Each structure stands twice: as structure tokens, then as C-alpha cells.
Amino acid sequence: MVDPQLLEILACPETKQQVRLADDALVRRINAAITAGSLKNREGQAIGEPIQAGLIRDDGRFLYPVRDEIPIMLITEGIDLGQIGG
């Protein structure tokens, strides 16, 4: 999904922490919450579109969505994993 070389250079736009690829189980949980209408991005907007993958910040607190094989590395698009207990 995400090119391994690209993954090596990507970092959280807020803290500059490295990111890692989310496992399939977490992506399924996030997409279930999106489908249920219970997930919001950091800007407070409901997320309406499922993700293909996600990049988790090293501290495990935020995930940046991947859509159409493009990582969305914007602070406002980050998903607080505390919303899903993850």
C-alpha cells in the first residue's frame, strides 16, 4: 500500500515522530467507526470516507489516513486513536 522507502522518510507533521503502518485489525476497527458515524478528525469533522490503510505516530496517539495509496499527512486529518480505544 505505502512504498517502504516513502514510509522511511514520512513523519508526523506536528511532532516529527516517525510513523508506522497500522495493522489490518486496526484499519477494520477504524472503518467500522467511520461507518457508524462515530469518528472525527482532529478538526472535529466527521469522517465519512473509509481508509485503505493508516500511518500511526510513534507514540500511538494519532493515525494519518491513507486513501488512494496517498498518505494524508495533514495535522487536521489526523485521527485520535483514543476515540476507538486504540
Polypeptide structure, described:
With 86 residues, the chain is an alpha+beta fold. Helix content is 22%, strand content 21%. The chain contains 2 helices and 5 strands; from the N terminus they run H-E-H-E-E-E-E. Strands 1, 2, 3, 4 and 5 form a 5-stranded antiparallel beta sheet that branches. Strand 2 and strand 3 form a beta hairpin. It is globular. The chain starts with a helix and ends in a 6-residue tail after the last strand.
Total number of distinct structural domains:
1
What is the first-to-last residue Cα distance? 22 Å
Structural class, by secondary structure, is alpha+beta
Count of beta strands: 5
Largest sheet: 5 strands, antiparallel
**What is the succession of H and E elements?**
HEHEEEE
- The helix content, as a percent range, equals 10-25%
Instruction: Report the uncertain regions.
Output: none
Net shape: globular
Share in β-strands: 15-25%
Query: Overall pLDDT, averaged?
Result: 95
Concise summary:
The protein has 2 helices and 5 strands; from the N terminus they run H-E-H-E-E-E-E. It is α+β, with helices and mostly antiparallel strands and 86 residues long. Strands 1, 2, 3, 4 and 5 form a 5-stranded antiparallel beta sheet that branches.
